[in-house]
Fold this protein.
Amino acid sequence: MHLVQQILFILCAGISVYFFSKKVGEIRRNIKLGKDEDLTDNPSARWRNMVLMALGQQKMFKKPIPALLHLAVYAGFVIINIEILEIFLDGIFGVHRLFAPMLGSLYAYLIGFFEVLAALVLIACVVFLIRRNVLKVKRLNQSELEGWPRNDANLILITEVVLMSLFLIMNTADQVLQSRGAEHYTLTEPFWITSNFTGMFSGLSDGALIAIERGGWWLHIIGVFLFLNYLPYSKHLHIVLAFPNAYYTRLKPQGEMANMKEIQNEVLYMMQPELAPPSDGSQPAQQRFGARDVMDLSWKNLLDAYSCTECGRCTSACPANSTGKKLSPRKIMMDTRDRLEEVGKNINANKSFVDDGKSLVHDYISVEELRACTTCQACVEACPVGIEPLSIINQLRRYLVMEESNSPQEWNLMFGNVENNMAPWKFSPDERDKWAEEMAAEA
Amino acid sequence: MHIKSMAEYAANGETPEVLFWVGCAGSFDQRAQKITKAFAQILDKVGVKFAILGKEEMCTGDPARRSGNEFLFQMMAYNNIQTMNAYGVKKIVTACPHCFNVLKNEYPALGGDYEVIHHTTFLQQLINDGRIRLKEGGEFKGKKITYHDSCYLGRGNNIYEAPREVLQALDVELVEMKRCRTNGLCCGAGGAQMFKEEEAGDTRVNFERSAEALETGATIIAANCPFCTTMLTDGVKNKEKEDSVAVLDIAEMVAKSLA
């Protein structure tokens, strides 16, 4: 019986790790479809950002109540995974509570602590479900979340509630069995939370209890394996990618827009033709100005898209969105990820990308959304994990203006004024210092 | 009062302490010209040796870059950098946070390396150094005043305290809006929105921001950007409060309070 369980367990673990690694590999490949961007400078500042932002969740605390609830779930998730290690080893070696004899009385404290965390995770997830579905917090109920994103969020929360409940039920049954001296059930000191609920199970037979305990154990670990494989398809991937994303986040001032070196050289050669390299007769490589599709963005933009958990802090801070415009920075990130996943599937099917007649701009993100942005950086500032929707917006705008000449008439007039009158309005350049002449006259 | 240009300084073989980058709004927009004049008046009174580029100044290219026209931006930047490098400009002060951001953060990659200061920081330094002396019990003493963080000074460059310190030096009663500092709400003009109609929505960004400023009960909305000043003034007018609430640049407030 034990051997069967062991083999089954190892099989489950193997399958789950195989499929998880395969999907991780695909995501890695997809991110690398983006353009190169060197973000390895100043490692100490980057480590600091990772510790403060990802580990310490510094930016979450702008909204203290969700931050505390999130901290409970996060701490639970990370720390209870130590218990998963024991469950995993128990499963492989066919033993029960492997660490109990080694740790002595410390073991009960540890499990007690996990139980407290499990209870906190359970409570927080229930509150989160209420916030989403009953209180209908605005940022968690906006139009871009309709359909799959909303189900994704609820599914994650329900799964966590179920996993934590199984963990607690398993421990309760375990302690009743311990007290009856059942074979294999290592005697431990009472666990903090579940020891108070043993009464619930006291009327059940040993056989029924073992079924509950084993059932709880198996469902819990199978749940964990399924969740592991669900993760890379879900917004929940942020629990992993928040760390690299915070590490590679922007260190430069937020106001600074990325320079386009390729255009800098063109302008230089136009102004000073003597500096242009002599033509060797070959056609210069076709290059794209700005971004039309995900492959034109940088790998960091694509990592951003996979790191986004769709919390909507960016969108609720966005002045365009809060005044009813179509732009939502969260949707920019969701669209980028959706398009990238589509491109990934295309590559899986065809070995390399085959043009599908679609692009990120137009098919996913409309011109109207892009035109509504004031570049105020509130979305960048709001993101707890250092995502930059503005960077994507800027690159798509560059493509629209420079490759499609797609700009509103007023902007075309402004461009003309800047070029001909050296100011965005149609004033004579000779009047630029008229105010100074007036001051001289007034004095 | 005669405001000297870089060309005049160069002709006399002199170098000014600082170049005052006026910007297009400060040069041409009637409302913003008042801010330019107020700031120039302060510099003159305090005895800062400053110059302007005059007719040689051109748009930094900011609205072109933000709207996506990188070619035009780079052309403007090239010309401005040529001009400033020829004069050997070292230090620039500007009353526009958009010019400030481009000059400080974006020109270095194109060969223009200068020490760039926003006028509110410059004013704060002059007050701290005792070069600006303010009236005891000036016009703004005890007045309820709210301060609007512009995006490119605040979030863009992390400057939140210098403008507030100047206001404190004027003995005002500073009341903060619900969204301030890193959470400050945009006035709606950035990203070249100033030069086009807003996209369709429920309301205008400047109406929303002005309503928030009016909620504080302040009689003056202090700003640090010519575009914010315009947007907020329009928003105050929309609420028909222009007779009781003024939108002023911090430089204008300091100019009125000089001892």
